[in-house]
Write a structure and sequence with these properties.
CATH class: Alpha Beta
EC number: 2.7.1.15
Keywords: ATP-binding, Carbohydrate metabolism, Kinase, Magnesium, Metal-binding, Nucleotide-binding, Potassium, Transferase
Organism: Pollutimonas nitritireducens
Structural class: alpha/beta
Order of helices and strands: HEEHHEHEEHHEEEHHHE
CATH topology: UDP-N-acetylmuramoyl-L-alanine:D-glutamate ligase
Strand order of the largest sheet: 6-7-8-9
Helix content: 25-40%
Number of helices: 9
Domain Carbohydrate kinase PfkB: 2-225
GO biological process, one term: D-ribose metabolic process
Largest sheet: 4 strands, antiparallel
Radius of gyration: 17 Å
């Protein structure tokens, strides 16, 4: 919690008696930096729609609302509903991947899965740029306004009704720990949108953040400052039409 306080992050939580805080075990391959993650959600699995309603005013006052699936899906859905109702930009990072009700997709201004999650949600195995495009179009047909599939070292693919755009990955040095890279991209992208950046520039912001984070050990502690990201972006190439 000291890290959150030092960064000025507000933490509002409901105490769940007779349950532990969520626990994550992360195993990192010291040769490649790749990781394997096991999660026990703990208290998070008790989150309800009513819990989300308690914070409706916070959601309504936001520029961007980001949610993932480490709590019950219906809690995530309620957050998306409140955000859409109040004109807040919505981002769903569907991790860990699971079957989603059809009414979730139209609530997403941006659906942001990785290759594995996109494969599960679309039914198309994503192992290339072309298969990522095919999966994205399935998810667009389900109602998402924009789909961004993160593709590791290949970058991130944006697809919507008008275009496909590939934002390149960013290398800031030797990869030593990929833990949190996907979350970093999502957070950087959301931060970019909240700053008023165009979606493609926001993707570059997220790519720079993720590229720096993998050169450091840890998850939250590996995330760079805004100043570091902006400096890195000066050397980051622009993407290309898909």
């Amino acid at each position: 919690m000291a890290l959150w306080r030092d960064e000025g992050i507000c933490s509002k939580a409901r105490i769940v008696n007779d349950e532990v805080t969520g626990v994550t075990s992360i195993f990192v391959d010291t040769r490649s930096g790749n990781n394997s993650i096991c999660v026990y959600p703990g208290a998070s699995r008790h989150m309800t729609r009513d819990d989300i309603d308690t914070h409706a005013s916070d959601i309504a006052a936001s520029a961007v609302f980001v949610v993932q699936l480490e709590q019950p899906v219906q809690a995530a859905v309620r957050g998306l509903e409140l955000a859409k109702k109040n004109g807040v930009i919505t981002i769903l990072n569907p991790a860990p991947a699971c079957a989603l009700p059809d009414d979730v997709f139209p609530l997403c201004d941006y659906l942001l899965p990785n290759e594995t999650e996109a494969s599960i949600l679309s039914g198309i195995e994503v192992n290339s740029i072309e298969s990522a495009k095919a999966a994205a179009h399935v998810l667009l047909a389900k109602g998402a306004a924009n789909v961004i599939i993160t593709l590791g070292e290949k970058g991130a693919l944006l697809c919507n009704a008008d275009e496909a755009y590939l934002a390149p990955a960013f290398s800031a040095g030797k990869c030593i720990d990929t833990t949190g890279a996907g979350d970093g991209f999502t957070g950087g992208f959301a931060a970019g949108l909240s700053r008023g950046l165009h979606v493609k520039e926001a993707m570059r912001f997220g790519a720079a953040l993720a590229g720096i984070s993998v050169t450091r050990h840890g998850a939250a502690v590996s995330m760079p400052t805004a100043a570091e990201i902006e400096e890195a972006m000066a050397g980051l190439p622009h993407g290309s039409a898909g």
